[in-house]
Amino acid sequence: MDDGFPARLTRLSRRLLDPARGPVRAFEHALREVSEFLSPLPQLSDGLARPAGSMREVAAFGANPGALGMSLYVPAVPPRPGAPLLVLLHGCGQDAGGFALASGFMGLADRIGAPLLLPEQRAENNRGRCFNWFEPADIRRGGGEAASIRQMVAEALRQFQGEPERVFVAGLSAGGAMAAALLAAYPDVFAAGAVVAGLPVGVATDVSSALARMQRAGPEPRAALAELAAPARAGGISWPRWPRLSVWHGSADHAVAPDNSDALVAQWTALLGLPVEPDQEQEVAPGVRRRAWGQAVEQWRLTGFGHAFPARLPGADPFVLPAPVAATEAISRFWGLTRA
Predict the structure, then answer these.
(1) CA-to-CA distance for 37 and 5, rounded, in angstroms?
(2) d(Cα 92, Cα 250) in Å, to the nearest integer?
(3) Mean pLDDT, to the nearest integer, of 98-113?
(4) Contact 192, 334 (CB under 8 A)
(5) Top-level CATH class of 51-334?
(6) Residue ranges per structural domain of the chain
(7) Residue 312 in contact with residue 295, Cβ under 8 Å?
(8) Residue 168: DSSP 8-state
(9) pTM of the full structure
(10) What is the DSSP letter of 227?
(11) How far apart are CA 144 and CA 314, in angstroms?
(12) Cα–chain center distance at 250
C-alpha cells in the first residue's frame, strides 16, 4: 500500500473528531470526504480466489423499519438444509460485497457451504452509509435497523432452511458496534458474534456522544456497562443464554479508541457472569495477543494495527489490511465452524 494511506486515514479521523467544528458539522464534513479519501487509493491485487458463488439482492423480506438493503452471497454448491447462516456488517463507506470478499467471509461461506447475509446501509439513512449504532431507536429489540436485520435473518433462514441456532454475526467499525447491539437485542437469535474495531452497546445516544466515545472510552464499571446493554432488550428481559463474542482491535486505531475493546469485553463478561480476569492469555504471533474467558469471550489486540479488518492478504478494500493473524479464520474457529 502506498505510504500516503496512513497519513490520509489519520487526517480523516482527525476531521471526524475535530471539536472545533462542533460535533454534527465535524461528522458531516468528514463523511463528505470519505469518497474523496478512498478514490486515490491504489487498486491492489488481493490475491484472493474469485468467489465461485453469486450475489443477489432481496427486495422483499418483511417489515423494514430501518430502511436497509439486503443482499445474499450464495455459494456455488447450494447450502444444505441445516447449514449455518453468516451475517456480515460493513463499516462506513464500504461496499458490502467488496468487504465480504476482501475480509475472507465469501471464502468462508464457500468452504463451509453457508449462505452469507449482507445487510447494506443506505445514504438516505446515514450520509456516510454507517449503521446507526448510536441511535437508541435503531438498536432496540423490535425497532429500527436492528429489526430490519432480524427480518433479513428470518428470510434467509426460510430460503435456505437454515439452522436457527447457528446464526453468526460479525462487523467492522460501525458495523461492529451494530453487531454488538444485535447480540444484545436478540440473544435468542444469534449463537455468537465478532466485533472488529467497534464499541460497546449503549455508550452513545446521538452523533455528539458517538464522536466523543470514538475518541475516548469512558470509565464505566462493568455493572454499569452491562446495564447500558439492557435497554436494547425488550423490557430488559433476562435471557438464559447469551451469545459468545470475539473482540478485535488494533493499538494504532485513530478512528475508534482501542480502550473501547476493553470496555466491550467488560460489558460482555459482566452480562455472562464471568470474572474480570481471563483464564487464558498468550501471544499468538509477534504483536498479537489473545485473552480468553473459557469458550465464551475472547479478545485479540494487535500492536501497531490501525482501523481495519485483519486479513491474510492485502485487498482492494482499504479497511482490510494484512496482519499476522487473519481475523476471519480465527473467528470461524472460535464460532466452531472450522478447525485449525
Answers:
(1) 9
(2) 18
(3) 97
(4) yes
(5) alpha beta
(6) 1-41, 51-334
(7) no
(8) E
(9) 0.86
(10) H
(11) 34
(12) 14
Nearest to 261 by CA among 294, 302, 228: 302
C-alpha cell belonging to residue 283: 501471544
Neighbours of 201 (CB within 10 A): 30
Specify which of 48-52, 225-229, 321-325 reaches the highest per-range mean pLDDT: 321-325
- Residue that has been written with the C-alpha cell 470509565 in this structure: 219
Q: Find where cell 486515490 sits.
A: 40
Q: Shortest CA distance to 167 belongs to which of 180, 147, 183, 178?
A: 183
300 vs 6, residue with greater confidence: 300
Q: Which of these, 92, 86, 64, 95, lies nearest to 176 by C-alpha position?
A: 92
Residue found by looking up cell 433479513 in the block: 152
Cβ atoms of 317 and 307 within 8 Å: the answer is no
Catalytic residue list contains 173: yes
Q: Which residues contact 182 (CB under 8 A, 6 or more apart)?
A: 139, 146, 149, 150, 169, 189, 190, 193
Contacts of 324 (CB under 8 A, 6+ apart): 284, 285, 286, 287, 288, 302
Question: From the CB of residue 108, how many other CB atoms can be counted at a distance below 10 Å?
Answer: 23
Catalytic residue among 148, 173, 246, 261: 173
